[in-house]
């Protein structure tokens, strides 16, 4: 199987849901080996941008490409090297945790012996072993999220897209996810991850982009001091620049 880099490029993505809702020319790239975090206020367009990256939104203009290929025309083999969890954690409620993750591995093209090993590995990495035989519908919200993450990561994808992957997790889960994302990037994968927790993304991200009103308006330095203050300054400056008459 050829090893592609799975570089993600989203250019001038536009999807208008309402006067101030949607994407209004968002541009972003995720390079191989990079953890790129996306931060922004509620409704700023993070989920929509991630859905656009995965070809799950019909854009009115602009587009997403993986290794230069528009996502709408990306061949199945290339999709099998993408892992994502956007909005909903993948899990069939009546299947056990192990069967759910194994199914995800098979759907991503892993042959059976390799899939078994990969499932064992990701169950351990997300501290899910004790739930392996439990049906997904009986899990707590945080453990369901872990299953969704396991399904997104089991096949060691070259491109990872995760929308708020830690919002339901306990502190131990947050650390485990951080370790997994750092390891994926160290193995050469590109990682796009959204979060509302600036301190948390600063620990893993090589780049942090700020989305506001459907546009990427700037970046934050992950090593910078007082990220929260800088975030609000960048957002406020953008808000001010769009409403000069309102002042
Ligand atoms: N299918 C849709 N139809 C109509 N409006 C939509 C649709 N999807 C998203 N929107 C609107 O687009 C805007 C951006 O939504 P999106 O979910 O991308 O934001 P977000 O940054 O992920 O928010 P949050 O931090 O709250 O998860 C919101 O105003 C939302 O209501």
TrEMBL record:
GO terms of molecular function? ATP binding
Print the keywords alphabetically. ATP-binding, Nucleotide-binding, Transport
Q: Where is the ABC transporter domain?
A: 8-238
Give the InterPro entries listed for this entry.
AAA+_ATPase, ABC_transporter-like_ATP-bd, ABC_transporter-like_CS, P-loop_NTPase
Protein family: Belongs to the ABC transporter superfamily.
Q: What is this protein called?
A: ABC transporter ATP-binding protein
Where does this protein come from, organism-wise? Actinomycetospora rhizophila
């Amino acid at each position: 199987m050829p090893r592609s880099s799975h570089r993600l490029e989203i250019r001038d993505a536009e999807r208008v849901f309402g006067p101030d809702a949607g994407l209004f020319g968002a541009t972003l790239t995720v390079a191989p080996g990079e953890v790129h975090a996306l931060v922004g206020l509620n409704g700023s367009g993070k989920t929509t941008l991630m859905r656009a990256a995965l070809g799950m939104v019909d854009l009115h203009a602009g587009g997403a490409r993986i290794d230069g290929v528009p996502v709408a025309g990306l061949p199945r083999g290339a999709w099998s090297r993408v892992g994502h969890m956007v909005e909903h954690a993948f899990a069939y409620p009546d299947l056990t945790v192990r069967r759910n993750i194994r199914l995800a591995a098979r759907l991503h093209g892993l042959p059976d012996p390799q899939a078994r090993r990969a499932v064992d590995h990701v169950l351990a990495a997300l501290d899910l072993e004790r739930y392996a035989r439990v049906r997904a519908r009986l899990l707590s919200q945080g453990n369901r999220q872990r299953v969704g993450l396991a399904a997104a990561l089991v096949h060691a994808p070259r491109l990872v897209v995760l929308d708020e992957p830690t919002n339901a997790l306990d502190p131990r889960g947050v650390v485990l996810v951080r370790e997994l994302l750092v390891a994926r990037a160290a193995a050469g994968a590109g990682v796009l991850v959204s979060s509302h927790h600036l301190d948390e993304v600063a620990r893993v991200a090589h780049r942090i982009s700020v989305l506001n009103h459907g546009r990427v308006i700037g970046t934050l330095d992950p090593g910078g001091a007082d990220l929260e203050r800088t975030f609000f300054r960048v957002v406020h400056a953008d808000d001010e620049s769009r409403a000069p008459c309102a002042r």
